[in-house]
Design a protein that fits this description.
By secondary structure, the protein is an alpha/beta fold. It folds into three domains: 134 residues, Jelly Rolls, CATH 2.60.120.260; 101 residues, Immunoglobulins (Immunoglobulin-like, Sandwich), CATH 2.60.40.10; 284 residues, Glycosidases (TIM Barrel). Helices cover 18% and strands 35% of the residues. It contains eight helices and 30 strands. Strands 21-22-23-24-25-26-27-28 form an eight-stranded parallel β-barrel. Strands 3-2-4-9-6-7 form a six-stranded antiparallel beta sheet, with no helix packed on it. A four-stranded antiparallel beta sheet has the order 1-10-5-8, with no helix packed on it. β21, α1 and β22 form a beta-alpha-beta unit. The model has no long low-confidence stretch (mean pLDDT 97). The structure holds alpha-D-galactopyranuronic acid. Alpha-D-galactopyranuronic acid binds next to loops.
Length: 555
């Protein structure tokens, strides 16, 4: 399952999840059977394997159509895709989906082979040794689709509330994969209304956007307290026949900045949430759906209303769950703590641009996503870094004007980019990395933000927290004990949750997560884990759980 709802009733889709042949690349290596999706680290022989391996699967084409479309929701972290030994796709980044269309595939048996590499090297600017783990494998779902010569690539649904009426701009992106022009009709069906565009000439080998601007009445809006969703069904008709379709699930909601607050529809919001890595015990980043549900059940039990997808785009199944539950999402591109030298890697710009484009294009219709974030704790204190931040804000704004942008900084008192985002966010570990009064340090930070470009903008404390090793109890309440984690979290929550100058907080972090040992990360991370979770990597609650629940449920 790639989504929580069916995206096609007409297009023929087949899941390729399940057993694949697997082996390390190279000669005469041992053959395994590996489940897709999963991390290869789940297998005892590969629990710390960093390198290259290949997956193979035989697929059968039982109907002749114009093209075969392969849809990969996530491969960690570099993939080369071969179809009958012909290379058909290359993709970098574990956290964004990609697809490839192979025209005119013959009936019968074919070989699909995917070479996957999770090694660290100069070609990888974003997956580097870090305070989270870059797993290996086909870690999210895969499917194959039979498509006609003109098919619906994607849809963008942008709702707006004007003069007490819901309006929506709907863009339908069509692609003609063959060498002959085709005339089609596009039909949209949503909220009991049907819209049609007839006699559209789609030229050979081109993409074309068909746009609708419509008004709606008797609409139930999407909000955190009433997350009402609508299915948007699109059909492609040629010569009186429905040749393709695509179904999206959308919500009528608008995100607005009013002064230093963020509003959803007619409601001012305060974000109380968690930073959540995609990491769960032996499952690594390939978290099964029922455990995604478990995570959200726990977050909502704690009184959270939001989640930050630190530090990369998340699995669409998780975003679908957030849509259904009204959990507000800060989704961010893939980057964590890159120095200027690392941002100057020759692949950084392209890899970020691709990640931003794939994130926005594929996740655009999720009403739960209310903020796009970029470049967590990168070199925003430098002129060259500022240029890169500005370019990425501009890129995302060019694709989506409906959501505010932000970036979590730790360049305190030196950051020169605070004027660029719509929302100013900062990471602060008072009581853990620096022992001083939380209130005093917080006022220092807000005074600096106001002077350096953040005046009048919404402000989020995007990270704060402390380490607590599950099961480590200490009368002296030493650092790394569960007791000290309670002390530090409560001293921070008391200040942040009662300050009208901020509009949100994200605790670092929801659950403990594995980190990479390289670059000495292990030395500052007992167990080679980031132990700042409210629960551990198996979601076992630490002492701090009840303290967070008490504070979050007061707001
Ligand atoms: C930073 C970073 C997080 C994590 C945190 C920590 O704020 O953004 O990814 O590394 O520090 O645990 O120190």
């Amino acid at each position: 399952m790639l989504r929580l709802f069916e995206q096609h009733h007409v297009r023929k889709v087949k899941s390729l999840n399940g057993s694949w042949n697997f082996k390390k690349t190279g000669e005469a290596t041992k053959e395994y059977t590996m489940i897709v999706p999963s991390c290869w680290e789940q297998h005892p022989d590969f629990s710390s394997f960093r390198g290259e391996a290949e997956y193979k699967k035989e697929i059968f084409i039982t109907e002749k159509t114009a093209g075969l479309r392969l849809d990969f929701k996530g491969i960690s972290h570099t993939a080369d895709v071969y179809f009958d030994n012909q290379k058909v796709a290359h993709h970098y980044n574990a956290y964004t989906p990609f697809s490839v269309v192979i025209p005119n595939v013959d009936l019968g048996s074919h070989e699909l082979r995917v070479v996957v590499d999770n090694s660290f090297n100069e070609n990888s600017a974003l997956h580097i040794p870090n305070d989270y783990y870059s797993y290996g494998g086909i870690t999210r779902g895969v499917s194959m689709e039979l498509i006609p010569n003109v098919f619906i690539e994607r849809i963008e649904f942008t709702p707006q509330y004007r003069d007490h009426i819901w309006e929506a701009n709907i863009k339908v992106f069509l692609k003609n994969i063959q060498q002959l022009p085709t005339t089609v009709t596009v039909q949209i069906d949503i909220a009991g209304k049907v819209f049609t565009r007839k006699d559209l000439n789609i030229n050979e080998s081109t993409s074309q956007v068909v746009e609708f601007n419509e008004r709606f009445f008797d609409i139930e809006s999407w909000s955190p307290t009433n997350p009402h969703l609508y299915l948007l069904k699109s059909h492609l008709i040629s010569d009186e026949n429905v040749i393709d379709d695509l179904i999206e699930r959308v919500g009528f909601r608008e995100v607005e900045i009013r002064g230093n607050k963020v509003w959803i529809n007619a409601e001012e919001i305060f974000l109380k949430g968690f930073n959540r890595h995609e990491d769960y015990g032996e499952f690594g980043c390939a978290i099964p759906l029922q455990l995604m549900v478990h995570d959200l059940d726990i977050m909502q039990d704690l009184g959270a209303n939001s989640v930050r997808t630190c530090h990369y785009p998340n699995d669409e199944l998780f975003l679908d769950l957030c849509d259904e539950r009204g959990i507000m999402v800060w989704e961010e591109n893939h980057a964590r703590g890159l120095s200027l030298a690392e941002m100057k890697n020759q692949n950084f710009k392209k890899q970020c641009e691709n990640c931003n484009r794939e994130m926005v294009e594929n996740h655009y219709n999720h009403p739960s996503i209310i903020i796009w974030g970029i470049l967590n704790e990168c070199a925003s204190e430098t002129e060259e870094g500022r240029e890169m931040y500005k370019n990425q804000y501009d890129q995302i704004r060019s694709m989506d004007q409906s959501r505010p942008l932000t970036s979590a900084t730790c360049r305190h008192f030196t950051d020169i980019c605070l004027d660029l985002p719509d929302i100013v966010s900062f990471n602060m570990y008072t009581g853990w990395y620096q022992d001083m009064s939380v209130e005093e340090r917080h006022n220092q930070e807000l005074n600096w933000i106001h002077k350096e470009g953040g005046e009048g903008k919404p402000i989020i404390v995007s990270e704060f927290g402390a380490g607590g090793i599950y099961g480590y109890r200490d009368r002296a309440r030493s650092k790394w004990s569960e007791e000290r984690q309670v002390d530090i979290l409560t001293s921070n929550l008391q200040i942040y949750l009662n300050d009208p100058r901020i509009m949100g907080v994200f605790i670092w972090q929801f659950a403990d997560c594995r980190i990479t040992e390289e670059n000495n990360w292990f030395a500052a991370r007992p167990r080679s884990y980031n132990n700042k979770g409210i629960v551990d990597e198996y979601r076992r609650p630490k002492m701090v759980y009840s303290a967070v629940k008490e504070y979050f449920n007061k707001v």
